[in-house]
Amino acid sequence: MTDLTTLEAETYQKPRNQWWDVWDQFKTHKGALIGAAFFIFVLIFVFLGPIFWTLDAQYIDIRARSQGPSWAHPMGTDQLGRDTLSRIMVGGQTSLLVGLTAMLLALIVGTLVGVLAGYFKRLDGILMRLTDLFLALPLLPLLLVIIMLFRDTLRAQFGPEKGIFILIVFVIGITSWMQTARIVRGDVLALKEREFVLAARSIGTPPYRMITRHVLPNVLSPIMVSATLGIANAIITESALSFLGLGFPSDFPTWGRLLFDGTDWLQRNPERVIWPGLAISLTVLSVNYIGDGLRDALDPRIRGR
Amino acid sequence: MKLRHLMLGAAAAFALAPVAAMAERGSDGQLNIIYWQAPSTLNPYLSGGTKEVESASLVLESMARFDSDGNLVPFMAEDIPTVENGGVAEDLTSITWTLREGLLWSDGTAVTANDAVFTWQYCTHPEGGCAQASYFDGVESVEALDDRTVRVNFAAPKPFPYTAFVGSESPIIQAAQFADCLGAAAPECTEANFGPIGTGPFVVEEFRPNDVITFVANENYRNPDQPAFARVVFKGGGDAASAARSVLETGEFDYAWNLQIDPTLLAEMESNGIGTVVTAFGTSVERLHLNQFNPDPALGDARSTAEGGPHPFLTNPIIGQAMSMAIDRALLVEIGYGAGGQPTCNVLPAPALYASTANDGCLTQDIAGANALLDEAGIVDSDGDGVREYEGIPLRVLYQTSTNAVRQDTQALIKQWWAEIGIDAELRNIDASVFFGGDPASPDTFQKFYADIEMYTNNFAGVDPEAYMANWRCNEIPGPDTQWQGSNIQRFCSEEYDALVTEMSQTAPLEERGRLAREMNDMLMQSYSIIPLIHRGGVSAHANSLGGVRMSDWDSELWNIAEWYRIDE
């Protein structure tokens, strides 16, 4: 009984120490630090910004259309006189939420499939063929079919915006987990042959414990990296969907839609493309840097050097 | 600029045209035209696309064409047959055309009445899918009375007989060339379809499908001084904005077609002073259709059909009227159409004879009036959420259209105005190829109309509205039993209206027909199942050095290309 308590206390202690190590290592990566700071800034900007900048993103003020930057509209207005700054904020909320949630979904599915396929030999064939199947699916027709089949049901259930949000997150998540699954499976296969796994197995550790205690922490770094790449990918896919008219309603701003709407005005009002374009590319870049830093920080072999 | 002059000179020399005074055939060198959709054939009977019909109109002609005001101008015919001059039978069952004397095909052979008879046989062949078959609707037979006289017999009295062989969509083709191309063989006659022999001012020199066509002047054209241009290069492909640039900014081309781009951008390009934007108004109207049937997704396959029942609130004309009053049409024109649009309150805005003036009150926006109207009718917001309720049902609508920047701007504006009168709109836009694709398996076509309100443009060809107004008969309602074919998109149904349609088909005097058409238009407008927004015109641009352009929206834009010439700079 006493043994067990000390052991438990130790295991609780250890991860905390480990995360401090990770943080120490992460701090040494300048790009990652700047990236993280910028990402937090973007989060604050889009989620808390509207509290201070109270102009309605959808309000049309036709007298103020196609204006350049001014005190009333720091980023100018679009061809219907809607304020670009508030549209960037509201658009960013949707784009980031879609990115984060879709990434999370893809990550969970990808990791689950990858670990199961790598760890259990019997499942490997089936799951990997399933992954191949998903990789071979043409994305666009699949999206069309899914949206056609479920749009009206979800719309009735959750309302137009939430319904489309769920649909888009699901669609992006379900079509971008395959890479994660393959990477994770590869790493798990290699891990399985290592001595400490053999040792754990020889003392009778059940598979569930084995996976959570020994395998998952060791494949964390590729998962983290694919997660950061996944956010970027999801933001871009959402933009593409909006471009095709399959995404949110046309008056509902997202970064992708703002960019798309601005392209016709490239010559006259270049800032209409520059702002959402900068927002997308800087966010994606910062997330990639965070991923880079995390990979280094999570790898015990690099840590401390 | 210099390069262009050199090229023009070279082109003129190549055509061996005597470079001399103006108004001589081929003296003005080369004409460059850009259509940003490329023609795939030059036989208008095998494709109903505007691009094919208009490119073929340089070569193939018909008895008569419509000018820029919608008047008939004789082309292959000597004059326009009417009841007065005896060309149209008293009982309206036949029309007799006389060909011009000495009319030659471009290969030098004579045009005879048999060519017209053959054209009719070609298009009405039961095995051939003729794209222009509607021009021969009601035609019982076509006979050659002698070498120059053709009589078209109708099965029933035809008050407006100028359909067959009139306009660039039903030209006369050469019997000798197409003799082996009847019925199922029609699409296989590549040589004939890509290089038809015609009587028009130009002859096909080379046709590259979906790319470029080069034409040279027709040596046998009936007017010895025309055409002024020796060659025409007809380029296809690209998009509207780049086509506009090539005429208005860079001057590579002399004429560009269908420039549906933001008016601010177009005006900016025009201000370069190289070219001019021209518009022509026909019958196109951008309109809202208010679904008279219930599109509730819960109804499944029965939605938007008679089986699904009437719409819970859009069948009430007061709501439609308030929606119409809340719209500022002049602003919509300013934002999205510029010179290419005019506010309208009629679904039938032209020709002048048929245009009603009874609904012009809608031209001024009246949000306060719309609110008062709804309040009076007891349609008020009873639960305080900013949306009015009609018999307990909140006025929330799904408003769909095709994907196009101008249409999305219009949607956003209208949504805001409706919000001010307590009607909540959800916007949806659908890719144009799906929306107008007509695939009966897709839920997103404009015919299925699985939404409360939809917006698009429609028009009719020619100048007679009889067939167009017949679109809103009860039996034209699209549904599963007709594979969703039918033109009564908003599902309007009224016995009185159907009676007027029948009456019009039996009425000959123009005045009387005008009255009937106006009456039908007003009946539709007052049902508020259609809310017209904008009378749209065709928008094209031509170089300032190109003279003689008289754009027509009633016929091919290039209908008078024989008269075009180069203005000396």
Quick overview of this protein structure:
The complex is a heterodimer of chains A (305) and B (569). Chain A is 76% helix and 0% strand.
The fraction of residues assigned to DSSP E strands of chain B is 15-25%
Oligomerization category of the chains in this entry? heterodimer
Which regions of chain A have little confidence, pLDDT < 50, spanning 5+ residues? Answer: none
Radius of gyration of chain A: 23 Å
Helix content of chain A: over 70%
Mean pLDDT of chain B: 85
CATH class categorisation of chain A: Mainly Alpha
Shape of chain B: globular
How many distinct domains of chain A? 1
Tell me the number of helical segments of chain A per DSSP (H or I, 4 or more residues long): 11
Strand count, sense and closure of the main sheet of chain B? 11 strands, mixed
Q: Roughly what fraction of the amino acids of chain A lie in strands?
A: under 5%
Write structural notes for this entry.
The complex is a heterodimer of chains A (305) and B (569). Chain A has 305 residues and is mostly helical. Chain A has a single domain, classed as MetI-like fold. Helices cover 76% and strands 0% of the residues of chain A. In chain A, helix 2 packs across helix 3 (84-119). The radius of gyration of chain A is 23 Å and the shape is globular. In chain B, helix 8 (317-325) packs antiparallel against helix 10 and helix 14 (495-505) runs antiparallel to helix 15. The longest helix of chain B has 18 residues, at 510-527. In chain B, 50% of the residues are buried. Mean pLDDT of chain B is 85; it is low at 6-21. The chains are: A mainly alpha (305), B alpha+beta (569). Chain A binds chain B through residues 58-60, 62, 65-66, 79-80, 148, 152-153, 155-156, 160, 244-245, 249-252, 261, 264-265, 267-268, and chain B through 241, 261-262, 264-265, 268, 297-298, 331, 335, 403, 405, 408-409, 411-413, 415-416, 426-431, 442-444, 450.
